[in-house]
């Protein structure tokens, strides 16, 4: 047993030794349980324990906790220790509380008074204990209780330096939970002037605080810039003996230097030429020092020195205004690329990614391309190779794209599994972005599928098809290349998908060559058919029917396949349906109809490559850094962007309306729907029914109603619109299509579809009267609950609707984060010269972005337990307003958008569901449990969601539905 | 800001944990488990940094103990390595060639030392001299109290 320092609690040391001597886990648990029982009885016993004993037992509890056991008592004894007049007892009390107490514990209320006493103590050691404890808990209660005391401590002339240091950081911690805690006004300058303090420790601590304040309110703290620059200048030019103990391995005050440099990164380069010059001198000196021979061989010396260097480079990149410094920084990092320290190589690769985005240093970075490619091949650490991939991605431009993409493809063959998927996405993005010749792009993507087919996500192969469909010049080449790729005896299923789709559309372009004659194409595809999954087979069936249109000569061959038992009687409903419908289509329709139905796909509309979004989602690293990088890249390539946008707009116009009213093209559409991921294959049948259903619904009501309600023009329309109006908005929480609103003049129907975080809502306005509706102007606006959380783009509509006519308005929306309530839909028009205004809501609620998620009982309960934060759960108990039928409850829950998980809840009466909400920024996992109580005619609804606030929003939405 | 610091042994036993951001115990345990197994699986020549969710992990091994810190995106990795080193130096100076056992038996001291070095996840005092001075002052109080306790026991106080 090693010596125990200080007063040593013998009992504690004995206990620790006992535990260490335990031969097995069981023995350890037994010993711990015995001790817990002992402590519990001591705490409960009649005999009052003295401070020493309390301290000892609390310490034992702490030790048991640190071993990984749960501790559910002893908190009160620890709280008692806080008010002990003995420092050692007090200190253990504080330790227990800071290790074991979470922010939202009830205990916090009990300790506030003790902390207050210690804060006011004359003994700085006590004050520091209190400050450290507040900083550790850092909750809102702490901010409320001490928000006024701590700033005073910080700037008071009487406060000792050690206390000031803790006070500054304590205030910073509270500021992070409660921003209002920092008093403004004269305090600002007093806090800023801490940068001038004599004591280096105080400046270091204050600098962290000021950095956080600056982030929130740069203008108010602008005064700190010149102070920070002069402080930095003094440190940088100091010799290592000047700063005594604040020199770390011959580097003067590295922590403070880094803090100051970080602080300055929140501002643009200083306006004052003097300050600016001084800052640049500092940066220059730091870069110079990097070239000097090291003053010590110790790694601590080089780490501290380089820590400052990297921070200096970071500010150089951030200001992006001194070409000379940028290039020097780049050269310095270039040296690090081949340094023997892995850490430096890692950081150099990472930092160079940012340099690559500056126009001044982009070219300088490119000089190191060889080294970086070499790193990709030779680095032994996967995290370093990952950085190399990132850098290649960042330094890629038109001039080197072919080479970089080729190198990444080469590397992909042997790349670590953990980074393959991200690499595939990156290659796909680069190939698309820098393709001068789309045949190259097609080659790259097909290579990707060949090399790493398993890691090619849907987005990637959807994208290549979108591009081929939209670009006539590449279609022939694509058909030829996929045809060749499919010759390989073993080719990846993704290749079959791409091949099937492309040949189905453009197989005719290569059919002239006897080697790829129609029958050969068909045979080739069909030779893969039996090895493929149902989804791919479904796609191939669509290719086959398209072949019937393209190549009538092989019609009978294809019909034989469609007729075969394995298709026509497939156990898979989707395959069966496709086979039988395609067969009938080919038998019964004329060639003209067939040609219309199976026409070439219209060009796709697309705002930005969805692959980029996937990549951003994939890596957390992409988030902040990448945002900056993307912004810069876009600025750098500013000219290119509008051009592509124009092209997209053009596509928009050429795209025919997909509002086809007869069911057969729906089949055709369903493949396009697959491509866009709008529906999974088994849903086809439903989608046919619901889509056509709505059309009939909207139109049927319209014309049916129009016949009976003939208005006489003298009635005041305003009152008319009030009477007999029905607003169905509530029902739309659990459905996507139907009549939203109807009165005697107008019927408003909704047809909407959602995919991931995007949605498209078609709003149909039907004029039920025999007069035109004039000055027709529907507008959509987001309310405070949705501001910034959901975007809504509304296509304009004609300003009038003829009598009995219907117009459609498209609304595109995107969910950025979870939101509350519904956007407003205001419909204004004049009917018979009387202006009308309908204040409605757009049926766009947060649950629309649900994706149902299937899981088994085990993982459901594991997730359920994981989401145990107080704000992650929302519960509502409410009275049933309708009959409590199982079938209708299920319909509502499905309509709400969640996956109904059957047989999971031990009580069969209950319902449990799971789904993910897709937003631009994150995915929110949501779990639901609904418990009906038929006797009481009540429901209890519990929702848990991975994001706080979401559960409440969902519970509010759903509770009104029953 | 540092989010947390973990000390664990080569056998994967957690020796010290300090959390600067509140999490439920379950989450803490999960994070700890994940990180310990990730880091123990890494080879000696690998870099001391890794990406983990949206945090950066900086770790270093001293004899049988791993020191592992989680910092935020904008924090400086190299300097975090030196925070670890400074902490090790402090422990070493205080215990006299510190070993894992010292930290097991005197875990509370290890905590007190860390609290002087870091407050609220930020570096508070980087001077070795000043930290040791503060700890010595604590020990002095402790000894006074011990003497006082002993005197009281024999009725002399």
UniProtKB/TrEMBL annotation, chain A:
Keywords: Cell membrane, Coated pit, Endocytosis, Membrane, Protein transport, Transport. Its main location: membrane. SMART domains: Alpha_adaptinC2. A 1,2-diacyl-sn-glycero-3-phospho-(1D-myo-inositol-3,4,5-trisphosphate) binds at residues 10-11, 42, 52, 56-60. GO terms for biological process: clathrin-dependent endocytosis; intracellular protein transport. The keyword Membrane applies. Gene3D superfamilies: 2.60.40.1230, Leucine-rich Repeat Variant, TATA-Binding Protein. InterPro entries: Adaptor_Complx_Large_Subunit, AP2_complex_asu, ARM-like, ARM-type_fold, Clathrin/coatomer_adapt-like_N, Clathrin_a-adaptin_app_sub_C, Clathrin_a/b/g-adaptin_app_Ig, Clathrin_app_Ig-like_sf. Signal peptide: none annotated. GO terms for molecular function: clathrin adaptor activity. SUPFAM superfamilies: ARM repeat, Clathrin adaptor appendage domain, Subdomain of clathrin and coatomer appendage domain. Residues 635-666 are annotated as: Disordered. It is a peripheral membrane protein. Residues 730-843 form the Clathrin adaptor alpha/beta/gamma-adaptin appendage Ig-like subdomain domain. Residues 646-666 have a biased composition (Polar residues). It is found in: Cell membrane; Membrane, Coated pit. It holds the Pfam family Alpha_adaptinC2. GO terms for cellular component: AP-2 adaptor complex. Adaptor protein complex 2 (AP-2) is a heterotetramer composed of two large adaptins (alpha-type and beta-type subunits), a medium adaptin (mu-type subunit AP50) and a small adaptin (sigma-type subunit AP17). Belongs to the adaptor complexes large subunit family. PANTHER family: ADAPTIN, ALPHA/GAMMA/EPSILON. Adaptins are components of the adaptor complexes which link clathrin to receptors in coated vesicles. Clathrin-associated protein complexes are believed to interact with the cytoplasmic tails of membrane proteins, leading to their selection and concentration. This is AP-2 complex subunit alpha. The lineage of its organism: Eukaryota, Metazoa, Ecdysozoa, Arthropoda, Crustacea.
TrEMBL record, chain B:
Its main location: membrane. It is a peripheral membrane protein. The keyword Membrane applies. It is found in: Cytoplasmic vesicle membrane; Golgi apparatus; Membrane, Clathrin-coated pit. Keywords: Coated pit, Cytoplasmic vesicle, Golgi apparatus, Membrane, Protein transport, Transport. It holds the Pfam family Clat_adaptor_s. Residues 1-140 form the AP complex mu/sigma subunit domain. One of its GO terms (biological process) is intracellular protein transport. GO terms for molecular function: clathrin adaptor activity. Belongs to the adaptor complexes small subunit family. PANTHER family: ADAPTOR COMPLEXES SMALL SUBUNIT FAMILY. This is AP complex subunit sigma.
């Amino acid at each position: 047993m090693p010596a125990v320092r200080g007063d040593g609690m013998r009992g504690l040391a004995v206990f620790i030794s006992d535990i260490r001597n335990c031969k097995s886990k069981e023995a350890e648990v037994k010993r711990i349980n015995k001790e817990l029982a002992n402590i519990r009885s001591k705490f409960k016993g009649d005999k009052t324990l003295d401070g020493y004993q309390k301290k000892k037992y609390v310490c034992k509890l702490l030790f048991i906790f640190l071993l990984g056991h749960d501790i559910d008592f002893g908190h009160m004894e620890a709280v008692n220790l806080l008010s002990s007049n003995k420092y050692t007892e007090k200190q253990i009390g504080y330790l227990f509380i800071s290790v074991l107490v979470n922010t939202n514990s009830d205990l916090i209320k009990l300790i506030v008074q003790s902390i207050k006493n210690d804060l006011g103590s004359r003994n700085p050691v006590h004050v520091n204990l209190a400050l450290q404890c507040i900083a550790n808990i850092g909750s809102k209660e702490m901010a409320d209780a001490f928000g006024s005391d701590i700033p005073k401590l910080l700037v008071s002339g009487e406060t000792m330096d050690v206390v000031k240091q803790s006070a500054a950081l304590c205030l910073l911690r509270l500021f992070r939970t409660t921003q209002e805690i920092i008093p403004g006004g004269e305090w600002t300058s007093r806090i800023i002037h801490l940068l001038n303090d004599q004591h280096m420790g105080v400046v270091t601590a204050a600098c962290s605080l000021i950095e956080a304040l600056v982030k929130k309110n740069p203008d108010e703290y602008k005064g700190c810039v010149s102070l920070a620059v002069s402080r930095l200048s003094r440190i940088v030019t100091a010799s290592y003996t000047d700063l005594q103990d604040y020199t770390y391995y011959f580097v003067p005050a590295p922590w403070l230097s880094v803090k100051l440099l970080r602080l300055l990164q929140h501002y643009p380069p200083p306006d004052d030429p003097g300050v600016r010059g001084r800052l640049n001198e500092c940066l220059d000196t730091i870069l110079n020092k990097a070239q000097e021979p090291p003053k010590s061989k110790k790694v601590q010396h080089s780490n501290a020195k380089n820590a400052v260097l990297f921070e200096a480079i970071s500010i150089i990149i951030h200001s992006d205004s001194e070409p000379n410094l940028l290039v020097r920084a780049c050269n310095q990092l270039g040296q690090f690329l081949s340094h023997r320290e892995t850490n430096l190589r890692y950081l150099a690769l990472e930092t160079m990614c940012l340099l690559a985005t500056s126009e001044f240093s982009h070219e300088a970075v490119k000089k190191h391309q060889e080294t970086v490619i070499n790193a990709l091949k030779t680095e032994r650490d996967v995290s370093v190779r990952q950085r190399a991939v990132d850098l290649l991605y960042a330094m890629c431009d038109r001039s080197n794209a072919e080479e970089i993409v080729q190198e990444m493809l080469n590397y992909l063959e042997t790349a670590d599994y953990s980074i393959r998927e991200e690499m595939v996405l990156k290659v796909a993005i680069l190939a698309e972005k820098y393709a001068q010749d789309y045949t190259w792009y097609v080659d790259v993507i097909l290579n990707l599928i060949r090399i790493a087919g398993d890691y090619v996500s849907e987005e990637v192969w959807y994208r290549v098809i979108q591009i081929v469909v939209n670009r006539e010049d590449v279609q022939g080449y694509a058909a030829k290349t996929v045809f060749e790729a499919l010759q390989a005896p073993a080719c990846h299923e993704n290749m079959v998908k791409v091949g099937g789709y492309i040949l189905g559309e453009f197989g005719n372009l290569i059919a002239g060559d006897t080697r790829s004659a129609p029958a050969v194409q068909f045979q080739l595809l069909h030779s893969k058919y039996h090895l493929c999954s149902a989804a791919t087979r479904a796609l191939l069936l669509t290719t086959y029917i398209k072949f019937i249109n393209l190549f009538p000569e092989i019609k009978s061959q294809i019909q034989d396949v469609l007729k075969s038992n394995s298709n026509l009687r497939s156990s898979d409903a989707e395959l069966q349906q496709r086979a039988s419908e395609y067969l009938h289509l080919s038998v019964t329709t004329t060639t003209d109809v067939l040609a219309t139905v199976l026409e070439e796909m219209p060009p796709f509309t697309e705002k930005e490559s969805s692959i980029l979004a996937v990549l951003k989602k994939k890596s957390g690293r992409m988030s902040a850094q990448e945002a900056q990088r993307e912004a810069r890249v876009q600025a750098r390539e500013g000219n290119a962007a509008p051009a592509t946008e124009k092209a997209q707009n053009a596509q928009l116009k050429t795209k025919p309306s997909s509002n086809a009213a007869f069911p057969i093209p729906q089949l055709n559409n369903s493949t396009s729907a697959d491509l866009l991921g709008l529906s999974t294959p088994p849903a086809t049948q439903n989608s046919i029914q619901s889509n056509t259903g709505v059309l009939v619904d909207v139109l049927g009501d319209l014309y049916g109603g129009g016949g009976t309600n003939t208005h006489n023009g003298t009635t005041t329309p305003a009152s008319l619109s009030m009477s007999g109006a029905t607003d169905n908005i509530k029902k739309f929480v659990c459905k996507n299509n139907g009549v939203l609103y109807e009165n005697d003049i107008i019927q408003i129907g909704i047809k909407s579809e959602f995919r991931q975080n995007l949605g498209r809502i078609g709003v149909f306005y039907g004029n039920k009267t025999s007069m035109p509706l004039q000055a027709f102007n529907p507008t959509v606006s987001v309310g405070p609950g949705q501001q910034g959380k959901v975007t809504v783009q509304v296509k304009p509509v004609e300003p009038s609707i003829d009598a009995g006519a219907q117009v459609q308005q498209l609304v595109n929306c995107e969910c950025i984060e979870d939101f509350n309530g519904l956007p407003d839909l205001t419909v204004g028009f004049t009917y018979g010269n009387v202006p009308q205004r309908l204040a409605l809501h757009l049926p766009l609620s947060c649950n629309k972005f649900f994706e149902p998620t299937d899981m088994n009982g085990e993982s459901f309960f594991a997730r359920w337990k994981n989401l145990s934060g107080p704000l992650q759960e929302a519960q509502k108990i409410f009275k049933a307003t309708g009959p409590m039928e199982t079938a209708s409850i299920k319909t509502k829950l499905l309509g709400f958008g969640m996956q109904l998980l059957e047989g999971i809840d031990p009580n069969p009466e209950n319902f449990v569901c799971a789904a993910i909400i897709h937003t631009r920024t994150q995915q929110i996992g949501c779990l639901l449990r609904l418990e009906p109580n038929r006797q009481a005619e009540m429901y209890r609804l519990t929702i848990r969601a991975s994001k706080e606030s979401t559960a409440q929003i969902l519970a509010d939405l759903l509770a009104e539905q029953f | 800001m540092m989010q947390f610091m973990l000390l664990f042994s080569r056998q994967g036993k957690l020796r010290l944990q300090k959390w600067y951001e509140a999490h439920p115990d379950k989450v803490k345990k999960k994070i700890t488990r994940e990180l310990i197994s990730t880091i123990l699986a890494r080879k000696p020549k690998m870099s001391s940094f890794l990406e983990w969710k949206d945090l950066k992990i900086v770790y270093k091994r001293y004899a049988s103990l791993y020191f592992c810190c989680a910092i935020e995106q904008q924090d400086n990795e190299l300097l975090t390595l030196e925070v670890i080193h400074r902490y090790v130096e402090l422990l070493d100076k205080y215990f006299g060639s510190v070993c894992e056992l010292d930290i097991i038996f005197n875990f509370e001291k290890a905590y007190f030392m860390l609290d002087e070095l870091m407050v609220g996840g930020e570096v508070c005092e980087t001077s070795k001299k000043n930290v040791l001075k503060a700890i010595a002052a604590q020990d002095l109080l402790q000894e006074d109290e011990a003497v006082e306790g002993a005197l009281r026991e024999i009725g002399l106080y």
